[in-house]
Amino acid sequence: MISSVLPTYNRAPLSFVSGAGSWLTEADGRRFLDLGAGIAVNALGHAHPALVAALTDQANTLWHTSNLYQIPQQQALADKLVDHSFADTVFFTNSGTESCELAVKMARKYFYDKGQPERVEIITFDGSFHGRSSAGIAAAGSEKMTKGFGPLLPGFVHLGFGDHGALTAAINDKTCAILIEPVQGEGGIRPVPDQCLKGLRDLCDEHGILLIFDEVQCGVGRTGKLFAHEWAGIAPDIMMVAKGIGGGFPLGCVLATENAASGMTAGTHGSTYGGNPLGCAVGNAVMEIVSDPDFLAEVNRKASLMRQKLEGLIASHPNVFDSVRGSGLMLGIKCKVAPGDVVNAGYAQDVITVPAADNVIRLLPPLIISDEEIAEAVTRLDKAAASLDAS
Ligand SMILES: *Cc1c(COP(=O)(O)O)cnc(C)c1O
User: Fold this and answer.
1) Is the residue at 9 inside a domain?
2) Which of 290, 316, 349 is the last residue of a domain?
3) In this structure, is residue 7 part of a structural domain?
4) Which band of pLDDT confidence, cut at 50, 70 and 90, is reported for residue 111?
5) In this structure, is residue 371 part of a structural domain?
6) What is the Å distance from ligand 1's center to 28 Cα?
7) Measuring CA to CA, which residue among 297, 332, 273, 263 is closest to residue 74?
8) What is the spatial distance between Cα 241 and Cα 95, in angstroms, rounded to a whole number?
9) Fewer CB within a 10 Å sphere, N or C end of the chain?
């Protein structure tokens, strides 16, 4: 008999009743060190006092009105995002998938309004992930996500990750945009080298097409910059954000330049919940903390510490681990055994990691993780690897 919850997930036999900082607790009191952060969502850990205060204050005042009216919390968050990024304007969503929908619509509408309605094709890359809507799965294009779901939204061209030759050849007079994650998340923590991001920017400028970055997983301080592409010193025209921006409250957004957003006039897009007072109250609290240069400096310091300790871990378990990669506190360990086995061995040592494609386990700890917790995490991962070494 089918479970009352639609069985689309392979769930681990863990169930948490509370969280604080980098820790999650089960009903019997067993505590886990959380290096998953709800897949890069709990950027400030669990029950961060500033986020709890922002949410409860707003909950006691006003939950929801409608985008039919002015929403001051939304205006404030948009102003912050514009102040701290390449963008001139922001649309609020509830998830990364919805941000992908708008990014695709915005890019196509841009060329439609420019009198080039045939420019609809968006170039994407193998191993990418852009959400589970019809546009999201068509954009990523992997059989695992698309098979059985009928005709896909047309207009996506899929290229090999890092295949420069194919990229230049793929651009034609139907191309409207290139869509890429500056650091692939689900695909196995694969950073796009800065040089390549710069190259993509140049290519888009040369052909007059739009560059869309999906920073749903790598954005909001995760890599040690507010947004990952800042490391490359270039900017996109459109950017998708979600996960960390709500710190656990469902919130996403699309950032864009005035030019790229020029087609999105009144009535062209909307959302019932997107940017409501509750979500934006939390988003403002997240941004206040994460956009602080001192906070980001700490993320970078802790990221080097963690990476250095992980290099040691890998050296001690050459049969289990291959290498470490990633950017900031978005780290991946390439495994020589099934990553699911490593994640399970971690659970047995009360440490949480997240599997990804390409034989990788992901370490996406809360950005507020302490030095002591980093050391403890690596000790636990060491025990987990030892249990696999022995078996
Ligand atoms: C998680 C993710 C999405 C989808 O976000 P949802 O909030 O699950 O809809 C899109 N792109 C990337 C890069 C992601 O990591």
Assistant:
1) no
2) 290
3) no
4) very high
5) yes
6) 32
7) 273
8) 8
9) N
Q: In whole angstroms, what is the distance from residue 223 CA to residue 299 CA?
A: 8
Q: What's the pLDDT at 309?
A: 98
- Label residue 151 exposed, middle or buried (CB < 10 Å: 0-12, 13-18, 19+): exposed
| Same domain flag for 168 and 244 | yes
CATH of the domain at 244: 3.40.640.10
Atom of ligand 1 nearest to the CA of 95: 7
- Per the structure, the count of domains in the chain is 2
pLDDT at 68: 98
Integer angstrom CA distances of residue 23 from 47, 69, 80, 333, 370: 10, 39, 29, 21, 11
Number of H helices, E strands in the chain: 12, 17
Measured CA to CA, the distance from residue 380 to residue 362 in angstroms comes to 15
Give the pLDDT band of residue 9 (cuts 50, 70, 90).
very high
Cα–Cα dist 360/333, whole Å: 5
113 & 150 share domain: yes
CATH number at residue 367: 3.90.1150.10
Structural domain harbouring 181: 50-290
Indicate whether 388 pLDDT > 80.
Answer: yes
Mutating to test ligand 1, I would choose from 41, 93, 125, 130 the residue with most ligand atoms within 8 A of its C-beta, which is 130
Whether 383 is covered by a domain: the verdict is yes
Q: Is the pLDDT of residue 176 over 90?
A: yes
Ligand 1 residue neighbourhood (C-beta within 6 Å):
95-97, 100, 129-131, 181, 185-186, 214, 216-217, 242-243
Largest CA distance in the chain: 65
The answer on pLDDT for 391 being more than 80 is no
